[in-house]
Amino acid sequence: MISVSERDYITKGVDRSVRADGRARLDFRDLNLETGMITQASGSCRVTLEGGTDVLVGVKVEVGSIEPDAEAAADADDIDDDGGARTAGGGGPGTDDTTGSSGGGTHARNRGRISCTVACSPSATRVFDPRDVESMCNEYSQLLNRVLNSAHGGVDLAALCIVPGSTCWVLNVDALVLDYGGGLLDAIFAATRGALHNTRIPRATVEQTDGRVEFEIEDEETEIVAGWEDVPLTVSMSKIGYRHIVDPTPLEELCSSARLTVAVNRRGNLCALQKGGEGGIEPSLLAEMVQTAKQLGQTLLSRHDTLLAAEARRIAKGVDPTGFR
Amino acid sequence: MDQDDIEMEIDGEDSLDIHVVTPGEVVTRDSAFMRGHGTYTEDETLVASLAGVVDRVNKLISIKPLRTRYNGEIGDVVVGRITEVAQKRWKVDMNARQDGVLLLSSVNLPGGVQRRKNESDELQMRTFFAEGDMLSAEVQAFFQDGAASLHTRSIKYGKLRNGSLVTVPSALIKRTKSHFVTLPCGVDVILGLNGYIWVAKHVPISPEQANQPDALYHNDNEPIADQEREIIARVSNTILALAKHNNFINDTMIVYAYEAGSSHRVKDILKPDISQEIVQTARAQFQEAQQH
Amino acid sequence: MSDRKRVTGPEKSVAPLLETGSVPAFIFNPDRRHDGRDVNHLRPVFMKSGVVRQANGSAYLEAGKLKVACAVYGPRQNQRTKISATKGSLGCDFKFSPFSGGRRRSYMKDEQEREYSLVLEQALSPAVRLDLIPKSTVDIFVQVLESDGSAACLAAAITCASLALADAGIEMLDAVAACSAGYFESTVCLDPTGEEEAHEGGSLVLSYMPSLNEVTHVIQSGETSTATTVKALELCVDACSQIHAVMQQSLIANV
Asked: C180 burial class (0-12, 13-18, 19+ CB within 10 angstroms)?
């Protein structure tokens, strides 16, 4: 809820690039990142923003089966996972079973999969209407799935295959929103990338005996998730008046008519583009926002990599995480 | 309850110790004391029902909780947001246990203070205050169910414009003489006792406005220059920094903290190390001023 | 002791894969697509409004093998408790029919359909004059009868819903036209069919209001370079203008 005069104050402030907390239009708030505080999970990461946003992502790795009919490339528009509890990668426009533009590529028979869910804990939902929360969580889950569960999502899904055609690793990524302070989607992606960097998959050795294939999981030896560095980060831009800002506070989100989320990866390519909100955006402004997002994304990625490197050093030294203290 | 009672002196000598108690802890076994807010009697002993500090005023013992929802008192200045427009009244979110109530008969209507409320006013309630509007008001009375009844019958209360809201824990704001402060940097601050603080550009009120139909309830902001916007942002961040370090908030503290942070960029004030430095400097300055 | 009277089947059974002879590998040729189109050509589209008598407004759209029907009810009283006194609301429902695609879909809405419902709402809200119908709601129901490319289905659903809204006499700023595109390396190909969609490297769905020159919704997946995306956006905007022209003709014909 916001008053007419507050909306006007914020809109004019954005126009002059002096936001209510003193930031310029394209300034991000400080981000705190910590990994590995949930020991039961295969990987975890918590991201907190200055204004109160708090997101925790946990990754659990389990052995799953590749569906015998999962390779069908012609019926790409509906891929239902009969075995698993959730539809892995419901697929947005297009499909998650892209065989890559180079023809060949990896068929679904030889890949693992990632299944993402975003949930809002009750502590964060005082601000939201429960019904809106559900559709927001669904929207974010779908976006995460679409980005990560494709051949271009960064993570090397072929490396997650244990026995081609039969068994694979399934990475269950669960994001939990603990507190809401604006800028949720970007925080969720940042925490997901951090959690994937932190995830360790037990090594699986495959043996072929008498035409039967058996595999053994060794808990002691673990591997990192191949391709985590190529997982993209998102930049969400909110349109307020005729300008756009990044990393909005809750009040600024109430003033914005539309939001454009762009996922950018290390190579500078766009991995996803999604518009949210109930207003329209002019095509030329849209193109401009895409370009801005690409540059900002690169900055965010380098900041993220620095933070993750510091985390890796801390873990190597055996220092305990601060966790929730 | 095997713990020792806290030693109390009956003849009014305040001990300088701060006694923190938890729910269920015995405060005193002496039946000469009267029980106040936050305590209950069990047999002949006085037991705490809140976690907080024991506050003794002569023979009345009450517990002041460390952090609680705002509990209003008559005469308090509060800042609130309209949540609902109902028949002849508005519901106001005051960060308290219940929404406050602003009756149509408690507001100033355009056309003079003495005007009777007629039917057209009821239908036009949204032209005065609509959902989402911010206002400052005073607590007039309490309904039986504990909801506060507010009024804006003075020219200094009413709809808020030209600024932004800062939310802090209500316990950090103490009752002082005036809650409408103009800082030397040219910014108006309204310290609502319920924890809502309105920081805005200073706009002098002229008494003739009480009679003009549009002046009271219009939604247009004054033009605000970039410089003024920055100062408002700086004051907001300063207040948030003070709140983060659990420092109480009044006009002098805000001024000290503002000066301490003047060398930093506005957006840096909220960074943990910088905010700590600012608050510590302000505290030191405050204590120094106390001693003189 | 095993039960000799019964022959137990396998524990897990799966629908058989029908091999219809050897299928030639699909090679995408930008100069000559399988249905003979150019990369910049949309499938010829047929639109008709007023097909569902019970509804306040309805429309049917067919493009190639794709068939989408939409019904609009409203404006009618909003039954929900928390409603705004100043503007109305839009309730969108998107559903694939169980027989619409290669694999049978269940009657329960899965996550993809819920997301598409949200996309429908976001794409149509900027166009509908909700401020003129406070406390009321407009319910939009889209049913995909046969799908041929899920991105194309979403685009068709948005277009069809706009037509139905216009047929229902609900005031709008403009009719929203939507189109889809697929990325094949650096080539952008408009309106991909289901077959082409399986081999693409990414896809884009864009909804646009030509009179106001505003994009109401955009959603893209797959990895692309910024330049390719910008090019695709321009192409889609032009295509949407073409679709809009067809929509206008269809509406005038049906009045």
From this structure: buried
